[in-house]
Each structure stands twice: as structure tokens, then as C-alpha cells.
Amino acid sequence: MQVRFWGTRGSLAKPGRATERYGGNTSCVEVRSRSGTLIVIDCGTGAHALGQRLIAEQGGAVSGHLLISHTHWDHIQGIPFFAPLFVAGATWDIYGPGGLSQSLRATLAGQMEHTYFPITLDQFAAKLNYHDLVEGAFAVGDVHVIARYLNHPALTLGYRIEVDGASVVYCCDHEPHSVAMASGETALSGMDRRYAEFVADADLVIHDSQYTAREYAGKVGWGHSPVEYAVRVCREAGVKQLALTHYDPLREDAAVDRILEEVRLRLRDCGSPLEVLGAAEGMVLDLDGDGKSLSGAKQHFAAKTAIDLSSSARPVFLRLANRQCAELLRAAVAAEGLKCRELDGTVDLQAAFGEDRPALLLVEHDPPLIDGLEVARTVRRVQSGDQVQIPVVLVGAAPDPALETGVATDWLVMPFSESYARSRIRAWVLRAACRWVRAGLPADEAGRLAALQELAILDTPAEERFDRLTRIAAAALDVPIALVSLVDSERQWFKSCFGLDVRETSREVAFCAHVVIQKAELIVRDTLLDERFADNPLVLEGPRIRAYTGMPLMLADGSCIGTFCVVDTRPRDFSDTELGILRDLRDLALDEIRHPRQA
């Protein structure tokens, strides 16, 4: 994979003698796969030179793909000047974050209205295909791309690009979820830890570095990273190479040199192998990955999933004692075109959820005044039988790393601006608008995993004593797939897999992970009619699951380690007799698990 930088400046183009080495044009990066797939990431002023180069090299129609991180001006201002869009016979697919109220196309058309520009979007001669994205994965030719919401006042996506055994992650614009981590000295936790997992093991990360930690102290909420944070995330995530970019307009070349020198010295002192460079216009990086950094994009949620616009008709529930914070959130909810309902301590949550199914619950965590975590637990109990779990976001001065995970969806850390709150509310509602529920973690997760490891069965070779059972299940129930599935910390692994040619999938997409958390049988007669699974990648792509029935594999201590399950590619109803056969086969599989054969 080849990466070339065409624009590295943030916020405002700043060409001149003091920026001639690292560049003065705003964000634009060109990526090519070995097969020739062309991807342009962001279309700031640097896109002008790229477009001229493409036309000169190919002498005619040039087709490609344009990934827009977000529609702030410095990331799209090159679109009206990108020459390939004016050539008939070319085709360009344009991808960017979609919202509840306005499409990507409509947003991009706004900058080319008559008031601002002499021609309109409709006057481009190339064929343009627009793709509104949510968080998830999609394919661009032979390239797999994973999109993830970043922490920015506008709805913004970072992109992880994987092809030819190599991976590149592009993250502009993004700031720490926790201010305490801005200096790069505090251990990563919470959402910042999850962010590090997104960039983990990448061959190259192209990261926003607009500020230093000292400068960031006065810029909190503006949506940009200090250099120290970018380095810390990449160092802990095992990234091979970090390219700092999105330089502040006031940052001259000499200042960038000093920052790089300080960063490299600190990395040398701590023995880190991370290589840090300053992205510069014209710089070309050739990446020959070893394949170890690939994350399995096919097993992520589908980023092109249509947004359920009915979410915008559902209210956002607020439960806050802080008046100033409540007023700000009311304004943010209203600005997003959503209704707001405020709950006080006397409201019965079960009754409230019965009257209205909210799109989101924002609850303050400030015990003993309001114990947001206990409210979240109550909501989960109220919703225990529901197919779709409402996002519950805790609002507080700082996330408490000691609090349990899996109950609250996320944190909104005070103080914050209205624009920042709007972007986070939009992202939470959009996540909930997609018909796919990721299973949470059971309360006994640590003990469950310990019990599974003690069995010493994971990653062992296939055995006839298990394969015989899945063959019988497939034949007796007339299904194409039968599995003995064990749910590990990050994956589901198949001890036996009749009808599949893979031995594991991501836990995130696993139907069996839902069985593990509920410790009960799961029967899904038609996935396309079930809000928990309709947009699951295993439904939309291979193996195209339409029906699933899973029986829990329960150990004597009450741990559920996985399932004996069957899958069909058509909707199915099983009779009581058939379900009885499946339970019997599950019991036989459990006997084999509990009593391993001697070698």
C-alpha cells in the first residue's frame, strides 16, 4: 500500500516560506493498493494539486473513491477544485458520516450554493455516488475500510484501511475523551482505551496533532489532539509508525522540528520502537505489511446500513441535577431536531419507558445526589426482555475507571460545549438506529473466562467425538450449519463447525455471545425481523444467517462458556421434538467437554 500526503495543515491553509517543508495546504491524503485502487482521504486545499497530477498522469477520466472524515470547511474546501470530478466518463464514490436530518450529498452541496460558489454540485461531469456511513466496515474495491466515530464537535469518522497485508489508520479530527489523558502521562482507560484498540497494531497511523499538551489546556472541546496524546495512544497500541499531521496554522516548520525532536528523545529514553515522523506535502510512504495488523473488517458492523429515521421521532430522556448542564443538553437535543423529556427522581422508569421508547438516556452521575450507575442498572433491568437496548450515557465531572463496564453505554465528561454535546448525542442516537445489538459482558465474565481456560480446549484440533454430534444435528434438523461454539474474551471459537470453513469469528458479531450473557436458550426464527440481528454482518454477508437456535453450555459453577447451536439460511420454526433433540446433543457435547479423552 502506498500513501502520499497532499495536505497536512489544520483549520486554515497557510502556505508560505515558514511552512514550505511540511506544507500549508489543508488535509488530503492519497492511498493506493497494489492492484491500483485509488482512495483519497479528505479533500482540503491539497486536493487541487492531487487532481491536477491525476489528470496529467492518466490524460483523461480518472475514477476513485473519496473518504470524507467530516464536513468542516478545511476538509472539503478542495472539492470544487478537484479536477477529476469535472471529467465525463469518470466515476467517484464519495463516503462520509450520515446524519438523521441531512444526507452527505446535501451537506456537500451547501458549500457550492450560488451565494458561495459560481457552479453547483450538479455540474460535475463525472458520475458521483454518495454513501452515508455509520460506524462500521465496508469494502472499496480490494480494500477493507473500518469507520469509527471520533471525538470532535462535528460528527466525524476515522478510517482504518486494510489491504495487501498492511493497515493505515487516519484520525483527523480527534481529541482525548478524558482531559486527564491529554499529557500522555496518565494510563489510558474508558473510551480512550477503546480508541487505542481501533488503531492497534497498525503499520501507520496518520493522526491529528494540532496542539501540544500545554496549548491544549486552553482548547478543550475544540476537537483536536495534543501531540503527547497521539504518541501515547500509538505507543500503547503497538503501532509501528505514527505520522503527525493537521498542524496548527501558526505552527511553523522550525516548531514542528522541535516537537519531533522532543518526541523522539522521549521514545528513545523509554525504549519504545514507535517511529514518529512529521507528515509533509509530497511525502510518499510504501507499506509492506505482514498481515498481523489486520483486524478482520468483514466481521464488523456494515457501515452502509441505512439509518432508522424513526429514531428522530423518539425522545431523549434527561435525568440531571446540575441546572447549567441540563440547560445546555436541552439546547443540544433541540438543535439536533430531537424531542426532550426530563425525568426527576420521582418518575418510575418502568412506567416512563412504557409510555415512550427513548432514543437515548442521559443521566448525571454525582452520588449521593444522583447515582447514575444505579439508574443505568435499573434501566437494564427494566429492559431485560427487550430486543434493543437503549443507550444510557453517564454525565459527570470525570469517568470513574473503577465503575463496572457493560451497564452504561458511554460517558459525557463535564465541562463540554453545546456543539460537542450535539455531536456526541448524534453519534449515540445513530448507533442505536442501526438494527444490531452487540451483546454486553456477563456479570461473571472474569470467572467464566477462567473456567473456559481451565478446560484447555481452545485452539485444540478437530475431534470426531464433537464433529459426530454436529453432523447428527445438521441431518436431524435439516440445517446447513451446526456448531459447538466457545465464547472467548474477544472471539467465538468453534470446537466443531459443520457447514462452515472458518474456526472463529469476532465476539462482537456472535449470536452465541447473547446466549452467554442471558444463560438461556436463544431462538431467532427470522433474523431480518429481529431488531437485535437484522443488520449483523453475519446476516447481511456470509453465511447470511436467517434463523438461529442456540443452547447454552453451562458448567457446574453456573458459567456459560458457549453454545451448541444450529443455523439456517431460511426462516425456521423448530418443533418441540426438534428442540428436544438439540438439547440432548448439547448435553452430550457438555459431557465430552467435561471429560476430555486421554491422548
Please name the defining characteristics of this protein.
599 residues; Metallo-beta-lactamase, Chain A; Rossmann fold; seven-stranded mixed sheet; 22% strand; globular
Give a brief rundown of this model.
With 599 residues, the chain is α/β, with parallel strands linked by helices. The protein has 16 helices and 25 strands.
Quickly name the level 1 CATH class of the largest domain: Alpha Beta
Summed up, the helix count is 16
Percent helix among the residues?
A: 25-40%
Kindly identify the CATH topology of the largest domain.
Answer: Metallo-beta-lactamase, Chain A
Oligomer: single chain
Number of strands: 25
Strand content: 15-25%
Radius of gyration: 25 Å
CATH superfamily label of the largest domain: Ribonuclease Z/Hydroxyacylglutathione hydrolase-like
Question: What features would you describe in this structure?
Answer:
This protein has 599 residues and is an alpha/beta fold. It has three domains: 2-294, Ribonuclease Z/Hydroxyacylglutathione hydrolase-like (Metallo-beta-lactamase, Chain A, 4-Layer Sandwich), CATH 3.60.15; 309-433, Rossmann fold (3-Layer(aba) Sandwich), CATH 3.40.50.2300; 445-594, Beta-Lactamase, CATH 3.30.450.40. Helix content is 28%, strand content 22%. It contains 16 helices and 25 strands. The protein has a seven-stranded mixed sheet with strand order 6-5-4-3-2-1-14. Strands 7-8-9-10-11-12-13 form a seven-stranded mixed sheet, with helices on one face. Strand 24 (547-554) and strand 25 (560-568) form a beta hairpin. Helix 13 runs antiparallel to helix 16 (576-594). The two termini are 46 Å apart. The model has no long low-confidence stretch (mean pLDDT 89).
